[in-house]
Amino acid sequence: MKSVTNSFVSLGHWPSAGGFGFNTDILATNPINLSVVLGVLIYFGKGVLNDLLDNRKQRILSTIRNSEELRKGAIEQLEKARARLRKVETEANEYRVNGYSEIEREKENLINATCDSLERLENYKNETLLFEQQRAINQVRRRVFQQALQGALGTLNSCLNSELHFRTISANIGILGAMEE
């Protein structure tokens, strides 16, 4: 931060040419501005980003646990369906003569319904995870950007006191006056 201040203060030592104008040399002004903004972003955004990512990680883990519980419920349903299937197979042996094909259709329907339920639950889990990840990424980006801007403004406002501001203006007026002559 002192190097930025020194660059403003050193402007007062330049001979004045008696003119007023703007410094349009992009190569001279952009590195200073970029280094200040990047420094502020890294300094203030690192802790916030870590906190946001930790919170987001906990939410994602919670969502995964919930999805795992749903999966366990689906497995229990599958076990019940298998028990029912065994029961249907036993009845099929008893009623083989009367309605073997009807029982086979019932068996297939149960298996298909259970597989469909498991697929839907798995798809729901995957969609939920993707949605939560995208939402977390967008939220982190927004917060980091807002806090970085607030930090940069706070740092700039705290560094520019009235004396430094007056000296910078005087130096720039002197430079511009020298350019006009």
TrEMBL record:
F-type ATPases have 2 components, F(1) - the catalytic core - and F(0) - the membrane proton channel. F(1) has five subunits: alpha(3), beta(3), gamma(1), delta(1), epsilon(1). F(0) has four main subunits: a(1), b(1), b'(1) and c(10-14). The alpha and beta chains form an alternating ring which encloses part of the gamma chain. F(1) is attached to F(0) by a central stalk formed by the gamma and epsilon chains, while a peripheral stalk is formed by the delta, b and b' chains. Pfam families: ATP-synt_B. Belongs to the ATPase B chain family. It comes from the Eukaryota. Residues 64-98 form a coiled coil. In plastids the F-type ATPase is also known as CF(1)CF(0). PANTHER family: ATP SYNTHASE SUBUNIT B, CHLOROPLASTIC. Its main location: membrane. GO terms for molecular function: proton-transporting ATP synthase activity, rotational mechanism. Keywords: ATP synthesis, CF(0), Chloroplast, Coiled coil, Hydrogen ion transport, Ion transport, Membrane, Plastid, Thylakoid, Transmembrane, Transmembrane helix, Transport. The keyword Ion transport applies. This is ATP synthase subunit b, chloroplastic. InterPro entries: ATP_synth_b/b'su_bac/chlpt. Component of the F(0) channel, it forms part of the peripheral stalk, linking F(1) to F(0). F(1)F(0) ATP synthase produces ATP from ADP in the presence of a proton or sodium gradient. F-type ATPases consist of two structural domains, F(1) containing the extramembraneous catalytic core and F(0) containing the membrane proton channel, linked together by a central stalk and a peripheral stalk. During catalysis, ATP synthesis in the catalytic domain of F(1) is coupled via a rotary mechanism of the central stalk subunits to proton translocation. GO terms for cellular component: chloroplast thylakoid membrane; proton-transporting ATP synthase complex.
